[in-house]
Amino acid sequence: MTERMLKFVDVEQQTPELRAAERRRRDFDEIYQGFDDSAAVEQSSRCSQCGIPFCQVHCPVYNNIPDWLMLTTQGRLEEAYEISSATNNMPEICGRICPQDRLCEGNCVIEQSGHGTVTIGSIEKYITDTAWQKGWIKPVKPLVELDRSVGIIGAGPAGLTAAEQLRRKGYQVRIYDRHDRMGGLLVYGIPNFKLEKDVVQRRIEHLERSGIVFHRNFEIGRDASLQDIRDRHEAVLIATGVYKARDIKAPGAGLDNIAPALDYLIASNRKGLGDRVPAFDDGDLDAKGKRIVVIGGGDTAMDCVRTAARQGAASVTCLYRRDRENMPGSRSEVQYAMDEGVDFQFLAAPEAFLGDDAVTGVRAIRIHLGVPDASGRQTPEPIEGSNFTIEADLVIKALGFDPDDLPTLFGASELAVTRWGTVKIDRETKMTSLDGVFAAGDIVRGASLVVWAIRDGRDAAEAIHEHVSASLAPVEALAAE
Ligand SMILES: Cc1cc2nc3c(=O)[nH]c(=O)nc-3n(C[C@H](O)[C@H](O)[C@H](O)COP(=O)(O)OP(=O)(O)OC[C@H]3O[C@@H](n4cnc5c(N)ncnc54)[C@H](O)[C@@H]3O)c2cc1C
Ligand code: SF4
Predict the structure, then answer these.
(1) Alpha helices of 210-324 — where are they, by DSSP H?
(2) Which of 96, 107, 302, 470 is buried deepest, with most CB atoms within 10 A?
């Protein structure tokens, strides 16, 4: 038995709290500090190969986890990689940032029986990082080159995945994105300490070497209309994500130094990438030495508090109107933030922002959770007279995102949207109300997860192929299968 395993057995005899803390430390170390062959074998050999693989059932891309765990145990990493990449276009990214506690690992039978999950995410990351290192990941070389093209709007995980799947079948694929760097929220949303930017860049270069063409700094609605893109391609995929920040209506909300979460995170990510970022360099969006208040309780809020802690903030407070059990994001992210010294004010909501020109504090009120509303969630109700003030030099609003008004932005009033503004698609064909125009990712689901965007991108690619291949010669259609 290895030293590491002995440690694990010891921990099993400790209190639940100590056990949970040890498990968190181990998960964190494995994902972010490194992992080696022996640790991968040790973890994967803990899989009980149960009859119904609940981990697989709860993985949005239905990864064949038990098989690649068994191959890892046997030291057959290349085959493990083949299996893991057959269902997932970005396994090393999902391994790093999926909320595994809500998906595969949370449903692991060993976890359910109280012995601590097999750390599936860190093994998935390890297998794929090894595949990159050893050169097992090769550019896509389709069996046939088709003279049919697909235009994809948005280079986030949904668009990139669909592009790779379509390229495998031989389509000519062009991706249009308004940003200078490709990757969507993988580059400009998720912080570097969770997902290193060179890991995303490696994927983009792989897709470019596979023959996918990127049109950078190209915004649909500014540089072309949706119809222009439709005219250039046999099919179009809309994968533009959701970016309209939800706002707070409260006195003082217009004061200086109150910033939307994405402005703050983009500035930090750009700085990390070596860009000149005036809003960061002049101090406005740099948390160093400041008292930071983040409003919200989702994953974006956790990314903001953890970024602020790393920038050297004097204090970081998270204000959330519900309790810890009702937080929408990953439980481990909240725990990591607590471990990093973030002060959580649960059951508290902002009432007013204080200050003359720039914000100096947030007046908040304590909340009681009342009767459940139509969605089943308890309604937050302010407790009269319970106000308190938190001093602040920078307030970050992280209350979630809504879709932009695409029909107007794209000059396509016939593009049907739901009452929430997300793009409507047919469940079977994945097509929007416009012939030959498909949609995938957050713009269809609302703000969601990378792994769901990957799943949607794969489904959309299949649907596009079905639509376009109807007009292919039989021999071409066969080769593209
Ligand atoms: C701060 C933050 C942290 C997150 N952390 C996690 C996490 O840890 N784990 C996880 O699983 N998920 C996380 N998510 C969610 C995840 O990032 C998204 O669900 C996922 O990126 C959605 O993929 P997408 O391809 O649909 O859209 P996006 O990633 O948003 O990509 C959309 C792309 O479309 C482009 N675009 C938009 N409009 C236009 C236009 N008009 N013309 C041209 N291009 C356009 C954008 O520039 C962008 O590149 C996080 C989200 C945020 C905001
Ligand atoms: S893709 Fe995500 S949910 Fe699926 S096995 Fe990997 S880490 Fe788990």
Answers:
(1) 226-232, 261-272, 278-281, 299-311
(2) 302
The whole-angstrom separation of Cα 117 and Cα 112 is 8
Tell me the mean pLDDT in the region 452-461. 98
Q: Which two tokens stand for residue 295?
A: 């409003």
pLDDT confidence tier of residue 198, bands split at 50, 70 and 90:
very high
Going by C-alpha positions, the residue among 373, 353, 372 that lies closest to residue 363 is: 353
Q: 60 in ligand 1 pocket by Cβ < 6 Å?
A: no
Residue 101 in contact with ligand 1 by CB distance below 6 A? no
Structure tokens at 57: 């059932």
Q: From CA 7, how far away is CA 230, in angstroms rounded?
A: 59
- Our answer on whether the CB atom of 199 is closer than 6 Å to any ligand 1 atom is no
Residue 295 · residue 301 · CB < 8 Å: yes
pLDDT value at position 442?
98
Distances (CA, A) of 298 to 260, 263, 394: 14, 16, 19
As a whole number of angstroms, the distance between CA 310 and CA 64 comes to 36
Taking the whole predicted model, whether its pTM rises above 0.90 is answered as yes
3-state secondary structure 335-368: HHHHHCCCEEECCEEEEEEECCCECCEEEEEEEE
Write down the residue that tokens 């596979």 correspond to.
210
